[in-house]
């Protein structure tokens, strides 16, 4: 369970964990906008951002090496295009492509590792993301691991029946996918009935709402200011 | 691309919210989780290689295109945030390519061919082709160098994976029909959806054509007057114009272009959704 780890990190407690999710989202957006607009040759700018994110990880008491490794999941795709670009003769652009996508992934790791999912979704709603979309994300996240486990169990069952015939045929794979579809559909209906029995009216209740305090505004402003400073210096 | 993706999804979300009542929320969320899980199932292709479902077309045939777009958006956002798959910087582009263009391009042949095997297959193929074509175009436009052989290889790969997606979608739909035919939505003439689908498919085709015609990147096109630069302005409008005017100060140009583009598209979208909702509410009131 690669993911359960990030989920555990997000339940920690630190000055960063305590900030309003919306403030952290705004800070992350400031960083993203800034790195997207950094010009060529601005390696110092990129280094400053990595340092900032590592500092945030340190303050949030996250395991830094594991954090860096989690962000590396973005690399295969970026490296692929960087390689083509490098072969075409633009080595500088290739390096920039890789660093850029790595920093964006690191930003996401810091954001998700310091904000539990329900809070993150509340933060998105605070920023006026359509509620329909955030609620769909909420349910998706809740049942993600459940259904992945179910698919894994089906795979193990098929392997144990097929024995040495490890190559499952195309039609059988389609059958497995359709059975998974039917089970997911049935599960969704059961979930909905159970929710209705508990008074569901289209959105999950939020048990503890957070106030957007001065400290939260401070975090977002500081990140914005950092982005502007790096932009002008680098 | 974020400038286009954000307001379109906001629009679609409003629309989906109006069209279906709240019982669809858990269903859509769980079906999003299903797509994640279904991607773990390997489909053997040839010897030694395997592929998996992408799912945009399948979702649009079962949940309807508007709902499928929302679910795909939620999937892409979760992938970028939680699994660092795709990355946040590419999220806007990914949403536009896969959740909007991919889904509607897949739905178009399904409607035109009135379902059936051919419609399902063409839907699967086209949904992936549209996404891949757009992605390729955006990559080239953002300055990634693609020499001719690399471009040819990637187009060939896209074509093959599009055919595979079509085959997988057909196989899964047939198996679903055996389990319970009620899962599959009959294709309904959705004019707006068909137009968006056609536009997306056209854009993707244009993207591939441009990419193959000008392997050095679309930037070059701004030098030629005529159709090419018009198309370029159309493809990235209204941002392209700002970029061209303010190109002397690149940082200003980029951030301003982003912000102004976002604002304009958002306002246009807001207006459209107002008009749409106004038009929609009237008949409902009459019925009531």
Brief account:
The complex is a heterodimer of chains A (234) and B (288). By secondary structure, chain A is mainly α.
Mean pLDDT of chain B: 69
Number of strands of chain A: 0
Give the oligomer, counting copies of the same chain as homo and different chains as hetero. Answer: heterodimer
Bulk shape of chain B: globular
Task: Tell how many strands the DSSP assignment of chain B holds.
Answer: 2
Largest protein interface, residues of each chain: A-B, 86 and 71 residues
User: Which overall shape of chain A is indicated by the principal axes computed on the Cα atoms?
Assistant: globular
Q: CA-to-CA gap between the ends of chain A?
A: 39 Å
Structure, explained:
The complex is a heterodimer of chains A (234) and B (288). Chain A is mostly helical. Chain A folds into 2 domains: 2-126 and 209-233, no CATH class; 141-197, no CATH class. Helices cover 77% and strands 0% of the residues of chain A. Chain A has helices spanning 2-10, 15-18, 21-37, 43-59, 64-71, 75-87, 91-113, 117-126, 131-162, 170-197, 214-233. The model of chain A has no long low-confidence stretch (mean pLDDT 84). Chain B has 288 residues and is mainly alpha-helical. Chain B folds into 2 domains: 2-217, Arp2/3 complex 21 kDa subunit ARPC3; 237-288, no CATH class. Chain B has 11 helices and 2 strands; from the N terminus they run H-H-E-E-H-H-H-H-H-H-H-H-H. Chain B has helices at 2-19, 24-38, 56-63, 65-82, 91-112, 116-141, 148-179, 191-213, 227-236, 239-245, 250-287; strands at 43-45, 49-51. A two-stranded antiparallel ribbon of chain B has the order 1-2. In chain B, helix 1 (2-19) runs parallel beside helix 11 (250-287), helix 3 crosses helix 4 (65-82) and helix 5 crosses helix 8. Residues 214-259 and 265-288 of chain B have low confidence and may be disordered. Chains A and B meet through helix 1, helix 3, helix 6, helix 7 and helix 9 of A and helix 1, helix 2, strand 1, helix 4 and helix 7 of B.
